[in-house]
Amino acid sequence: MSTSRANRITLQQTMNVLWFKRDLRVTDHAPLSHCAAAGPFVALYVDDPSIIASPEYGANQHEFVNECLADLRSRIEALGGRLHRIHGPTCDALEAIHALQPITRLWSHMETGHGVTYARDKTVKRWCRRNGVRWTECPTVEVFRPHPARDGWSRRWYTQVRKPEVPAPRALRSVDMGTLEGEVDTLSWDQLGLDAPAPFRQRGGRHEADELLKRFLRERTGRYPRELSSPGPAADACSRLSPHLAVGAISSREVIRRLDGARRLVTHKPVRAAYDAFESRIAWRGHFMQRLEDDTGIETACLHPAMDSVRRSGVRFNGDRLHAAELDRRFEAWCAGQTGFPMVDACIRSLRATGWLNFRMRAMIVSVACYTLWLDWRRINPWLARQFTDYEPGIHLNQLQMQSGSTGINELRIYNPVRQAEVHDPDGNFIRRWVPELEPLSTDLIHRLGTPPAAADLESSEANYPLPIVNHHTANRAAKRLISQLRQTPESRAAAADVNRRLGSRKPRPPRRGR
Length: 515
Description:
Elements: E1 8-9, E2 16-20, H1 30-38, E3 41-47, H2 49-52, H3 59-78, E4 83-87, H4 90-100, E5 105-109, H5 115-130, E6 134-138, H6 153-161, E7 174-175, H7 206-220, H8 224-227, H9 231-237, H10 242-247, H11 252-264, H12 269-294, E8 315-317, E9 320-322, H13 324-336, H14 342-354, H15 359-372, H16 377-387, H17 393-403, H18 417-424, H19 429-434, H20 443-448, H21 455-461, H22 472-487, H23 490-503
Parallel strand pairs: 1-7, 2-3, 2-5, 3-4, 5-6
Antiparallel strand pairs: 8-9
């Protein structure tokens, strides 16, 4: 539907621009509500080359955003407005609008992202100051800025997330800008020179988010607690809302409201417990985003300073001196799903094909990379980020640091890849699906392949599959011993106490509700 000329004007006293970032929706959108109430405005989305060029940006994320933007554009047009999508630096897009009609106010949601988005926002802030533009960043549910203290975050979050949603505007009026320089209808991954997206990735758009949440609350919640840890069943048992939350096609507040509505209709205790477990995951998501807001340095430096150089090239680990060539070999094998640990390789290949992996298996593949293969979490960070359609910097960076033992305050979670296969893929079907060269082998042999004694059996089977890249038993023991020793010094304990004071988890606890 094209924008009605009756709903466009060319001159006005107040010129508002709404900058969509990671909030691609029309409901529960405070900046949109403010702009709609103030009169005609310009709605803007920018494909900023600085973001696209960042090593964490991948085609899975980009194509998902394309679909969300197509959905958002249709909703804005149905309300009488227009969305301008610009490919170019954000300040250039603002300058183009400003040249046609001076901007008085810029509206957006606050964003907590990685360093490149922070740098872009600082550039926009300087542009606004130079041009006399007032920029209003409306807070999100997830992040408090400024954040007064770690204690009390949970109570504040649960209070904010249950405030009434901001209703979608009844109508929108757009300032007639014509076609702006750099404006595009869509922008594909191949136009940007990105690697191809995963063939089975999730599709984006508000309709998809609504349907996923509806099916999860009505049909899949009973399976959620018992199946979320196993990679095969988890693909259907989990909500799969994470990419929609990451781009803001749906807000946490909307999810919690619908969850509360479903909870009121259910008396069956296991289902209510599943609803509570799902709610706690939404709260933990906000908690980790707040941690990145409070310390942006976690993107590049270990939270615990003693861990910053333990995985450098040339370090001696498990009796060997690991030089760059060996670390390169291990990294490439891990990325290719060729480590010789069937469960790890199946998870990596599944991730590359779908853009998604359940939480426990994400933790396992990071553990194997950082403990068993002794790779630095900063090395695997961008590659993993590009694979995840649901890439959320706050969660991603915090989990990399936690699962690699780099925080100094979390328990060392060193996963045994063979045991994980036995527990979470007992029949071997997930492994056979994603590592088809092992399909003819017995389940018992598949589960033993990650251990050195199975080498002879593998060679006699003629399966085209590598032997384990390292002995995981000895590597994991060496990693645990080394990091545990580092944590015992007085200096290390003092540093850990400081990390805990500033960023330590305060378990999200909801306010008491009637049951």
